[in-house]
Automatic annotation (TrEMBL):
It comes from Paenibacillus phytorum. Keywords: Oxidoreductase. It holds the Pfam family malic. It comes from the Bacteria. This is NAD-dependent malic enzyme. The lineage of its organism: Bacteria, Bacillati, Bacillota, Bacilli, Bacillales. Belongs to the malic enzymes family.
Length: 478
């Protein structure tokens, strides 16, 4: 069983009660007294003097669930048959499946979907390769590719352990934007092998979403694939995160009444996400941006073995500040965490300027628990769905790929990304904006719709759209 992070947990307890020895109400009292909330009860079996029930219990902390199960074991007349973790149950056998669009009911169907008639379709594509977009899944399918080297903030846990995240991304693609996405975890962390494999896979796909590939390899992998493939290649941890971060920051700055040009921004974790977020912030006009990693602030007077850090230090930290996060954060208006859980302390936030913006985006455990700084922060956001203000690339990747597929974009360029940020930020109306609502929910259907419109317009404007969706043909989207 995984060690708990923070946030709610939920289990299903299967219990057998001897009804002459114990009342069901006593059991419920024990659960609630130990911090559990009963959210469902199912009767599984009953006999003359016994009953088996499944009780779904939630609690805010794992320790409370442990207290609940411990107390039940001590209750006379109750046998705890087993405890299941609902999250694990949901993952049994994986989270997605492939389904045909039409049934094969007779020989005629068989010959059309497969041989001999399929041959005519193959030859139509052989004669004109673009027909692949019309006649295969390429039109609507994205590969979600990882090597398992930087999975969430869990680190290099390898391709097998990365699969649940990639399956989750595929579900989100489908549910939020009707994009068919296929999770692919490669059993290699060699840059050249990854590039070659993805190039060889590309014919089936209309886009490649790179995911959770550690820096600095992710930069070369993406750059080379972008050069060598004619479909969009998008490293979600870099660009998806940057798009959403910028959207959130636009609105958070409005809440605290500060301007992006004057803000001192400290960003911790100069990896894939940290570098891309820094780039978008520099492009947006941030002047004082300081990157901090394990060795402290990145500064141009130092030399780093990571080539990206040398490049980064040249472009940031104008006052050449040196020192630890604790030192650098003094007077900062914005903290952005893209590192790992627990890096930021309350004393650090206390050193920031008044009404600080604190975006603690490490997953699954943020750099600081929001409850610890609720009273002193101007705006707090995390990458998680169980706190207000979820700044997570899930707000970007479904919509940006929906747009790219619909206009058969050859690439996803800077203009398309900025259009996506503006679209996301615009979903929160001025009268709705407040410290607990700077970014729309992932379930807000306006998000994908507005991203699609803005991004297709940007793709057409910048000449990377190979197809003009109908509603854009007569001079603009509806
Ligand atoms: N909310 C969101 O949408 C997203 C969140 N993330 C999160 O951001 C974090 C980084 O992701 P990637 O950039 O893809 O990984 P990465 O492995 O490319 O970069 C992580 C960087 O953080 C640094 N770091 C780790 N622990 C640190 C510490 N204690 N102090 C200072 N620096 C530290 C590492 O040295 C590395 O440079 C992860 O927790 C990930 O889950 C990443 C992408 C999207
Ligand atoms: C959200 C995401 O992509 C990550 O944490 O890696
Ligand atoms: Mg990721």
């Amino acid at each position: 069983m995984l060690k708990d992070t923070i946030g709610g947990k939920s289990i299903i307890l299967r219990v057998e009660l001897q009804t002459e020895a114990v009342h069901f109400g006593q059991l419920i009292t024990v659960i609630t007294e130990n911090g559990g909330d009963v959210i469902a009860i199912d009767v599984i079996q009953t006999g003359p003097n016994w009953t088996v029930r499944d009780i779904t219990v939630t609690a805010s902390e794992q320790v409370q669930l442990e207290a609940v199960t411990g107390a039940i074991k001590l209750l006379q007349g109750v046998k705890l048959v087993h405890v299941s973790d609902r999250t694990f149950l949901l993952h049994l056998g994986g989270k997605i499946e492939m389904k045909p669009k039409v049934p094969i009911q007779n020989r005629d169907d068989l010959s059309r979907v497969y041989t001999p008639d399929v041959a005519r379709v193959c030859m139509a594509i052989h004669e004109k390769q673009e027909n692949a977009y019309k006649l295969t899944i390429k039109r609507n399918t994205v590969a979600v590719v990882s090597d398992g080297s930087a999975v969430l903030g869990l680190g290099n846990i390898g391709p097998y352990a990365a699969m649940p995240v990639m399956e989750g991304k595929a579900m989100l693609f489908k549910q939020l934007a009707d994009v068919d996405a296929f999770p692919i975890c490669l059993d290699t962390q060699n840059t050249e092998e990854i590039i070659t494999t993805i190039k060889n896979l590309a014919p089936a796909f209309g886009g490649i979403n790179l995911e959770d590939i550690s820096s600095p390899r992710c930069f070369e992998i993406e750059e080379r694939l972008r050069e060598e493939l004619d479909i969009p290649v998008f490293h979600d941890d870099q660009h998806g995160t940057a798009v959403v971060l910028y959207a959130g920051l636009i609105n958070a700055l409005k809440v605290v009444g500060k301007s992006i040009n004057e803000a001192k921004v400290v960003i911790c974790g100069i990896g894939a996400a940290g570098i891309a977020c820094s780039n978008i912030l520099l492009a947006a006009g941030v002047k004082e941006l300081i990157g901090v990693d394990r060795e402290g602030a990145l500064v141009s007077s130092s030399s780093y073995s990571n080539p990206m850090w040398n490049w980064y230090a040249e472009r940031t930290n104008p006052n050449r500040l040196t020192g630890s996060l604790h030192e650098i954060i003094e007077g900062a208006d914005v903290f952005i965490g893209l590192s790992s859980g627990g890096v930021l302390k309350r004393v650090d936030v206390e050193r920031m300027s008044p009404h600080p913006i604190v975006f603690v985006m490490a997953n699954p455990t943020p750099e600081i628990h929001p409850d610890e700084i609720e009273d002193i922060a101007g705006v707090i956001a995390t990458g998680r769905s169980d706190f207000p203000n979820q700044i997570n690339n899930v707000l970007c990747f479904p919509g940006i790929f929906r747009a790219a597929l619909d206009c058969q974009a050859t690439t996803i360029n800077e203009e398309m990304k900025l259009a996506a940020s503006a679209a996301i930020a615009s979903v929160v109306a001025p009268q709705e904006l407040n410290k607990l609502y700077i970014i729309p929910s992932v379930f807000n259907q306006e998000v994908v719709r507005r991203i699609r419109t803005g991004v297709i317009e940007a793709a057409i404007r910048t000449g990377v759209a190979r197809r003009m969706p109908r509603e854009f043909r007569s001079g603009g989207a509806i």
